Queue: 2 jobs
Job 1
Amino acid sequence: MRIVGTTLLPGGELRLALVSLRDGRIEAVAPASTRLEERALRRASGVVRLRADEILAPAFIDVHCHGAGGGAADGGPDGLARMAGTLLAHGVGAFLATVMTAPIPALRTTALAVAERMADPVAAGSTVLGVHLEGPALSPVRSTGHDPSALVDPTALDAVLASEPAAWRAVRLVTLAPELPGGLELIRRLVPVGIFVSVGHTDAPAEVVSAAYAAGARSTTHLFNGMPPLLHRSPGPVGAALADAPFIELIADGVHVDRRILASIARAVGADRLIFVSDAVPLAGSRLRRVSVPGSSVVVRGATVVHPDGTLAGGRLLLDEIVGSAVRAGIPLSDALRAASENPAKMLGAVDRGAVKVGARADLVIVSLAGRLRRVIAAAA
């Protein structure tokens, strides 16, 4: 298969290119650098031609997604399959199965189920890259929506992960509060064994959060949410993340962060560090209005998904809709697409995803200039 049209190249450049696919991989990328080459590409025969208002980009990668289509990360094989199918239909080529704070045995069961799916060579739908443990090592004062009875200190989580490493082999990302006992030590232990750490649900002062990034923490979980606000003389986790974090998650749905400041925040973070996540709950991408989550339930109320007490419970939009929301809020299309593909791939060290480049998986999307998803091209199809 060969596709010609405006293409998002690594680093954010949009350029007319001829992209050749073979056996689920990108075989060649030939960008036009002169008017003569542009004319030649437009006349090429036997190719799929994009419309003038369409962009070819890498499929999206969601590193923070709890569920979709009625399926949940902790829903066993059937739930994972339903989740993966819905995500692929929404342009998400790969994801981390994200689980909220729960008793350790339940988290272990989820980790084993995800590992089993990862080992299945014929698993359909979006590719699960591993588990994101959003907890249980979270601050009790910043863990709204998580089961308080299942929270543990990083020291205890460290002991659990170290005691049975085979059971936790699918874990790729851990969100934790670094101010808790053993927080910095756990970061230093996880990084060398290939488990990334994100700072989140934290009440830490800025200096502790900066120390966490210095210790190897790689990302920031849903900036502004689950942390104290940014103050000019007490910048807290938000200020430390803006200054020091290698990557920063943002839920750009206009609900978790007000739409009026999304573009300003994106500029402050920078196009190379920004990662869009959905934080989607299982009812996203479905007609469901209410679902159960560990220790609670969530319900759709207007444009939001909330717990019974009215607090936000996660996202209702999936990443394709997040990209469109971001573009409508004034974030440049190329930056929005990189935040949903190239940057999460870099954060995870996934060198064969998230970019239209030779050798990468042929997981691609075609979007409009407004960021709306028009077609999904999956390597496994």
Job 2
Amino acid sequence: MSRIVLHQWEISPFCRKARKILQYKLLDYTIQSYNGLLALKVSKLSKAAKLPVLEYEGEWIQDSSDIAEFLERHHPQPPLFPSDPQHQAQALLWEDWADESLYWYEVYFRFMDQHALRLTIPLLCAGRPQFEAWVIGSLAPIIYQQQLRAQGIGRLSRDRVETKFFQHLNRIEVVLSQQPWLAGHALTIADIAVAAQIEEILRTSTLKEQILGYPQLADWLTRMNQ
């Protein structure tokens, strides 16, 4: 049995980020998912009642950024963080932007769109009894829409949100037209954090074709998954 267990939600971009880090580090791990009403058990794993949580040889690490730093200390190769101070600063800024800003676009496109929501609820309840999809399908949109309004993006029109989102993608495209990765000349935590958010948007959004219409971004995503 693997000595590393990732406790996760199926469609969380932060759990995807943690998986991508583990894969990048070539670490053997198993997954424990808390889909459907199993999510009620998460409070026993995390004081913040959030995932991912990494179980590593008896240690429990919460938060995707803390997991990244922990794994970097224990498995420094290949490196997640650039050695060059300027590139490292850039990588950490990208990571924070992905986690704190880009994330809300992922939530918006998933829970403020009926088409995406129809794809999302089965993923949230994968492997669970059918009645749980009804419960989660009734509660999750209300919870996330309230969060979106409190954050501010939920008060904007759909057109405005899309405009702002594609402005961000335009900037990413400019960066990738000048260099192969977001923070220098090697894959870093910046690429993993940003890609995790964008890939979750692609998973359920009707914007997939438009997003992949950015040639540099599309090529970058392909290289990320090689």
